[in-house]
Specification:
Elements: H1 26-38, H2 41-48, H3 59-71, H4 82-94, H5 105-112, H6 120-148, H7 154-166, H8 184-192, H9 206-211, E1 221-226, H10 232-246, E2 251-255, H11 260-272, H12 276-281, H13 286-301, E3 304-307, H14 314-328, E4 332-336, H15 349-367, E5 370-376, H16 397-403, E6 406-411, E7 425-433, E8 439-446, E9 451-454
Parallel strand pairs: 1-5, 1-6, 2-3, 2-4, 4-5
Antiparallel strand pairs: 6-7, 7-8, 8-9
């Protein structure tokens, strides 16, 4: 497919005695150009993946990217299409900001037919790869020129070529090593500055916050492990309520086991102190209805998002996180639970879980958020006289144990012994805490209200 812009797209560079034909992929660049006009969010998505628009070799296409970036604030939803882009380009050309001749409305409309937003990331990788190849070609031509020059100096020219070769792949500046002189100041400030809710996400439990130095930290992967029916989902909704409803921290709760209605029932009952079985039967008394109505207003105002899609892959989770980070300032993600996620294909289940666990950890670090993953324990505790679980009881525990920053095991003695003197209590066993203390936090299990609470509050 061709357009009438093809004859005057950027011509190959003239190298004097011969033509340097630079690698380029104009078709891939067309797809990106069309896709960002149809779905402007693609600009943010590609940028988040590290795509650099300067890798677009066709200058006219590159200016379309800049125009879409400029117009993004005015067009948050739906297609941008070609007319606003054409007007923006003409305005820039008229005031001298855009030196090259802009694409017309007709030309942009023809390019629009190339749109493939769902494949834009794949084409962006092609463009980035071709751009690296082009820089290699340019470096080779520079090396040829320097070598043929009568002024060639081995020391300076070779050093310059080596430095240029090091920069060919354009590594992300954010990933560069930093000198300790640039880091020590912040470390000294942390000595005398307690963390705030801007830096930590409160857990909802006073003793657990104290043990974790103020709550969940950005970039952490937290694993909550328990045997079935211990209350994993209940403790998870408690963490979500503490973050979103009590502290206004944007939170995404992805449930693979329960429906959104079941999750909302639990959140409302915990927040309003209404018995869960009364809600399910529709027999909540008048006082409870009043409390539920008041709690409902607080819940509705909270930045809490619930997703009960039954299938979740790592790329799918990443896409949802990227969307909510960009749109809502997401800081906490909870997934219930790990073993129900669709793992990347591998030779065996252990390797599948290893890839899944590592991917979740990288996701937390990349977006600077906390990801809490619920996980099933194996039957080990049930076969021991002491039913207290350990982190080695996690199913496929090797990689999960290794990747997790924090492992918390939920245990209730009365789940095994109804007449236990500790009936109504639960232990949050912090069995791993990277860079911090481990220990037990005892809370009250008020499962009739679908909640766990601080012992003092009970």
């Amino acid at each position: 497919m061709t357009t009438d812009i093809d004859p005057w797209l950027d011509a190959p560079d003239d190298a004097g005695d011969f033509i340097v034909r630079m690698p380029r992929d104009p078709d891939a660049e067309r797809v990106i150009t069309a896709s960002i006009m149809e779905r402007p969010e693609v600009v943010d998505e590609l940028a988040a993946d590290g795509f650099d628009p300067s890798d677009i070799s066709t200058e006219q296409f590159r200016w379309v990217w800049y125009a879409v970036e400029e117009l993004r604030t005015a067009f948050r939803d739906g297609e941008l299409r070609w007319i606003p882009v054409a007007r923006q380009l003409e305005a820039w050309h008229a005031d001298g900001r855009m030196p090259t001749r802009p694409l017309s409305e007709q030309q942009l409309m023809e390019i629009y037919n190339w749109s493939q937003p769902s494949a834009a990331a794949w084409y962006a990788k092609k463009v980035a790869g071709v751009a690296i190849a082009a820089r290699v070609v340019a470096l080779g031509h520079d090396a040829t020129g320097r070598g043929n020059s009568a002024a060639f100096d081995p020391d300076t020219d070779i050093a310059a070529l080596q430095a240029a070769l090091d920069g060919v792949a354009k590594p992300d500046a954010a990933g560069q090593a930093k000198h300790v002189r640039d880091l020590i100041g912040a470390a000294l400030d942390r000595c005398i500055t307690p963390p705030t809710n801007e830096q930590r996400v409160p857990t909802g439990f006073m003793d657990l916050d104290a043990l974790l130095c103020g709550g969940w930290a950005p970039g952490q992967m937290v694993v909550i492990g328990a045997r079935p029916a211990m209350g994993k989902s209940t403790i998870a909704t408690g963490f979500a309520r503490a973050a979103a409803i009590k502290n206004g921290i944007p939170t995404l709760f992805h449930t693979l086991e329960m429906s959104e209605d079941e999750i909302m029932n639990g959140i409302l009952c915990a927040q309003a102190r209404v018995a869960l079985h009364h809600l399910k039967q529709g027999v909540v008394d008048d006082a409870g209805v009043v409390r539920a109505a008041e709690a409902g207003q607080k819940i509705a105002a909270a930045p809490l998002y619930i997703d009960d899609v039954s299938s979740l892959t790592l790329p799918g989770l990443r896409a949802k996180v990227r969307l909510h980070v960009r749109a809502d300032g997401l800081r906490l993600v909870i997934v219930d639970y790990l073993q129900l996620m669709t793992a990347p294909r591998a030779e065996n289940r252990q390797n599948e879980v290893s890839k899944l666990s590592r991917g979740i950890k990288l996701l937390a670090r990349e977006f600077g958020i906390t990801v809490i993953i619920l996980a099933q324990l194996n039957r080990g505790p049930e076969h021991r006289q002491d039913k207290r679980p350990t982190k080695s009881d996690l199913r496929e525990s090797g990689s999960i144990e290794q990747d997790a920053d924090i492992v918390i095991l939920l245990h209730r003695e009365d789940a095994y012994e109804r007449e236990s003197p500790r009936a109504g209590e639960a232990d949050l066993i912090v069995d791993k805490h990277r860079g911090g203390r481990t220990g037990d936090v005892t809370v009250a299990a008020q499962l009739h209200y679908a909640s766990f609470v601080d012992m003092a509050a009970s």
